[in-house]
Amino acid sequence: MSQSFDIAVIGATGTVGEALVQLLEERDFPVSTLHLLASGDSAGQSVPFRGKNLRVRALDGFDFSQVRLAFFAGSPAVTREYASRASEAGCSFIDLSGALSLDDAIRVVPEVNADVLAGLKAPYRLTSPCAPVVALATALAPLHPLLDLRQVCAMACLSVSTLGREGVNELARQTAELLNARPLEPRFFDRQAAFNLLAQVGEVDSEGHALLEKRMVSELKQMFRISALDVSATCVQAPVFFGDSLSVMLRSEKVIDLQAICAALDDAQGIERVESPDYPTVVGDAVGQDVVYVGRLRCGLGNPHELNLWIASDNVRKGAALNAVQLGELLIKDYLSKILT
Amino acid sequence: MSQSFDIAVIGATGTVGEALVQLLEERDFPVSTLHLLASGDSAGQSVPFRGKNLRVRALDGFDFSQVRLAFFAGSPAVTREYASRASEAGCSFIDLSGALSLDDAIRVVPEVNADVLAGLKAPYRLTSPCAPVVALATALAPLHPLLDLRQVCAMACLSVSTLGREGVNELARQTAELLNARPLEPRFFDRQAAFNLLAQVGEVDSEGHALLEKRMVSELKQMFRISALDVSATCVQAPVFFGDSLSVMLRSEKVIDLQAICAALDDAQGIERVESPDYPTVVGDAVGQDVVYVGRLRCGLGNPHELNLWIASDNVRKGAALNAVQLGELLIKDYLSKILT
Question: TM segments (chains A, B) (predicted)?
Fold first, then answer.
């Protein structure tokens, strides 16, 4: 990649936005000018990039025609307000908020469905799927050709960083209060989250489904292009700071060949398989790493059509910022750079 | 219950054994003489019961013909060594260790399959199922007649008290070390368990299944008398002190009637249903309570044959000690008292 591009990062001061800027630097992303933008009070702060402190400017009034690619790492409301302005100015974007419909901004994980980009035209409107889907899709991609996938049942235990810095701070505060035997007054969560599991993440609709659960089902179906794929998803809030853990049960029409499954995972990009009786966890394995960890591979008890697995992934990196940056790299290398030349 | 019986509790100094003795007192269990027994070093300790401190005696050499009913709340090895001695002495027993096969000591939860007792003869050899099964079976029992149950997929997030007092102490110690930014040296667990999720509880066999997962599958099948019931189970170790949380996905041949399901749960014994958007958790709801909490009832996304639910239950009480005591009460009232008269 000899060309470099002017890029914008919206929501640069949040957990994911900060990780994104750090990854742009770490991975030597071909940036000429990096525009850091935020709405509201965050404008005016500085974020380090390539040895300088870049000032975060107000998103309002930003001229998107100055940049070729924008990362939307702010709230869904910000994406909803500014994404069309970016497109209209000819700026491709990668949204991380999930605000846009499947049709409006297609979900892409490079290891899973990079080929869909060939059917699209600039300016690109893409979404990095929600973190549990990035992890699950990355693990499923190499298995998919070996399975005649009929059913996916996933329980995702999400870390408090899913809810941003406030979630992290509140788990730390609650834990300290409890260990010091002080009375607990929940603030950010509606109850004790420390040493507890909350059965839902975010609000639920009138039928009881949380937004993230609906995203898991619809985004997986889109990415694997199986509209009839039978997916059940539950998201639970775990007292864990960083990293998502998923327990997954798959059913295949074909009998599972566990050796072939393991070999396919070992050969796959972006995956680290952990052999039983060891298993991966978010703390110690996945957090801070770019790969998705997969373990506890086993067939069903007496059911050779069932495959169970456990996934541990860094929700802020591979689950969000890293996937978006990888997608940006792919977009620049195979698409945006070719438009210029 | 006007009669009272001489009873033995084996493993009286463990987490479950202590809860059991406390429940015998709280529930005014018809005990004449209570024999507290333990193997190894625990003999010689005292446990409070009805205002006195009862001395725990050595199990070795105990004459089981002195008692009509024994609770085995010690390790599986202790049950394996002494259960047959109890039976041979005419003493009925309720095992809480899960050491004995399904055929050797039938699994019973009073709310689920009390009727099986009618087909048995004294001395009774019974097992209180593992805690996640007690919780799950209690929740399923009232639903079963409304569903044509085809599939059960359960992910159980178990508290560290599943592993006894050492598990509880180690989670507290690890958490304090981490909050005080001291280097962590795991002792009881093989890695950091605080602020982390461990993908398996206990050792796994050569095929990757943990003993508790195998118990969940086989015990559920026995209790619902559906040998072809399609059950998938995963047990995960959560950084929670007390209480088990289960995320459960059910499939029924019939379309789910969610209103009827809710009504059946509301009418059922031993269950507290929590209406969405609220939901139950172990801390604040289930722990210390005798009932099993059920919430997050919802159909599948676009699948009216799917029912999802969340269960929170006190693993030491209803999951173990309380269920065993309730089973003892049932046994005495309907069976053992009739043998005497």
Answer: none
